[in-house]
Design brief:
By secondary structure, this protein is an alpha+beta fold. It contains three helices and six strands, in the order H-E-E-E-E-E-E-H-H. The chain has one domain. The strands form two sheets. Strands 1-2-5-6 form a four-stranded antiparallel beta sheet. Strands 3-4 form a two-stranded antiparallel ribbon.
């Protein structure tokens, strides 16, 4: 790291470190399941779908690694899957199939992505609230020392 007159690191170096940290340890990760409805040639089917995501929000969150509130470098990564349904005579079990072309080629409308982003944001805010409650429960009340049982 280089030092300049503004502090121990330049602003771009701080941004680089923040981005590297958030890429390596995203704020949230999980799976979000929903129904995917497809209609083709008058036939309508509903399949289970799943978004596997990593998400670092723009807002302050409780960082599990740092055990403190933190604002990371915002970003997300989503991989989409749809669950197959075996034929009636097939003995195979359903499997998750990666959806690539549909999501990479702009086939799904912007409204879909906005709704998914909103759902993930709500889920992560709820998880963040739970993290903060758990962290507060681990801290000892200030001004009191724990006594040994006698």
């Amino acid at each position: 790291m280089t030092k300049d007159n503004n502090g121990p690191e330049s602003a771009s170096e701080k941004d680089d470190l923040l981005r590297i940290y958030s890429d390596r340890w995203p704020a949230f990760a999980g799976n979000y399941e929903f129904d995917l409805v497809l209609e083709t040639l008058g036939t309508r089917v509903t399949r289970k779908a799943r978004a596997e995501y990593t998400f670092t929000p723009e807002w302050e969150y409780f960082d599990l690694r740092k055990q403190a509130p933190f604002v990371g470098w915002p970003g997300s990564m989503i991989r989409m899957f749809v669950q197959s349904v075996p034929d009636r005579d097939d003995r195979d079990v359903p499997s998750w199939v990666r959806m690539r072309d549909i999501i990479e080629n702009g086939i799904l409308p912007e409204e879909f992505w906005d709704a998914l982003d909103d759902a993930l944001d709500q889920r992560c805010k709820a998880e963040d609230a739970e993290r903060r409650i758990q962290a507060a429960g681990r801290k000892m009340p200030t001004g009191r020392k724990k006594r040994k049982a006698q």
